[in-house]
Amino acid sequence: MQDRTNESFRELAVGELPALYSLAHRLVNDDAEDLVQETLLRAYRAYDSLETDAAGGRWLKTILLNVFRDQLRKRARSVDELPVDDVEEFSLFRTLADEDPFPYSDTLHHDFLHAFDRQDVGEVLRRLPEIYRAPLVLRYIDGFATKEIAAIMEVPLGTILARLHRGRKRFEKELWLYAEECDLLLEEVRR
Amino acid sequence: MTGSPRAIPCSEAVRQLWDYLDNAISPADQELVERHLSFCRTCCGELEFARELRGFLASSTVEEIPPDVRARLERFVKEL
To answer: Which of A7, A55, A137, A175 is most buried, most CB within 10 Å of its CB?
Structure first.
């Protein structure tokens, strides 16, 4: 790689560090720095394949997701074999209606969600197994289409749809459990 | 029999609500869900909550890069 190209790579990479770290942190939490480093290394080696400068940010994100996918495969040999639990039957909407944690509220479900701040939601997401957290993050936070996620993760579309379904259910249940654990359901601590 | 769609129970409608919001179900299933929603107030509530939860998730987490991590990564880039 020539000096000029080195310079443009550095400019691109440094400019994209916040976005890359943010995505990496949503996917792997405390291992985000390692994931970004591995991404930068792989991107540097493949920099000639970047067709237009304007696509640089998306290109780096795609590489990060490829690295993440490869790491996930190494970590989880049988990612589809997580034990079945009672999450399938859980409904946060019904649980809130049944438990009625804010009896004086006319907007119970809305108020429940507003008891969480960003840090709380981040913590709830961190409690999900990676296999479910990744599709949720990519679909609902980063805006990837389900077909794109399937292509990135190199699994059938039906598998991604199933993981999204279970991920949403687990997310709902973890929201409820977290709210109980952290006393977010007490009237006097509602924000 | 006419061509009107069969009815689905609440459990099936609820199972498909997020996919319905994502436009990730077939037109036939979409019609079934919409028919169910046309008469079931509880599932309409579930739908509204699913919509709010979706927006809540989308706007919830922007992780700032800590200054020390940013400095290390910038050094890493320079050393490539």
So the answer is: A175
